[in-house]
Amino acid sequence: MSEYIIKPKLTPDEDGTVLTVTPESAGWSYVGFQVAKLTEGQTLTRESGEQELCIVLLSGLANVATMNQTWNNIGKRMSVFEKIPPYSVYVPSSDRVEITALTDVELAICAAPGKDTYPARLIAPGDVGVEIRGYGNLERQIHNILPEQKEADSLLVVEVFTPDGHWSSYPPHKHDRDALPDESLLEETYYFRVEPEQGFAIQRVYTDDRSVDETLAVNNGEVVLVPCGYHPVGAPPGYEVYYLNVMAGPTRTWKFRNDPDHDWLMKPS
């Protein structure tokens, strides 16, 4: 198995956690990521410590409370493939968050270094920017949950829906050099869901010099680590692919470089 694929646990931890990525486990400096699956009535608690968090309710209904704020009965979609924007909660560093499931809940905990600059807040579906990006079989739907125009210290969070037979994160692009204004250094995780769930996605991770050149078959519920290089995603015919992206780096801006071999695709005839 590739070192870039992180598989979920078959049996959740006592608090519902099924998958964990830390900067230490990934061998990088900024991005942390967890997935938890809670049963109705179950509660999960996290201390943010030196990190800021974005709690994304992937599916289900929950009550969410921080040290100073409470939001009851949030959530709407019962599956990510309903394709409606999620409810999320931004949690600053030096805070505490408690999530209590009102139904079965799947949630993501996105983490990156925080400076306690902004207060906790609800990110409701109406706060999420929705766009269709690309053309033809490069077309996909984007939900900008925590883009750089919204307040946060480090985190960038977005979800992408790739129809069957389409490609996304395409043309292949990268953001692995701290070379602003042309390119920003951003570590990135991809959390995949596939519908129907017995399917798979294809992701390639490669660098210009091919010192990294991996072609990955990614199953439902797995995470791909992208520490460097280009990283396009393909959805095989018959299978729709969802992924949640978390990015962070030394500067909170998304400036990318397309693979020059494929940049002509940005100019459809």
Automatic annotation (TrEMBL):
Keywords: Isomerase. Its EC number is 5.3.1.30. The keyword Isomerase applies. SUPFAM superfamilies: RmlC-like cupins. It holds the Pfam family KduI. InterPro entries: Deoxy-glucuronate_isom_IolB, KduI/IolB_isomerase, RmlC-like_jellyroll, RmlC_Cupin_sf. GO terms for molecular function: 5-deoxy-D-glucuronate isomerase activity. PANTHER family: 5-DEOXY-GLUCURONATE ISOMERASE. This is 5-deoxy-glucuronate isomerase. It comes from Paenibacillus zeirhizosphaerae.
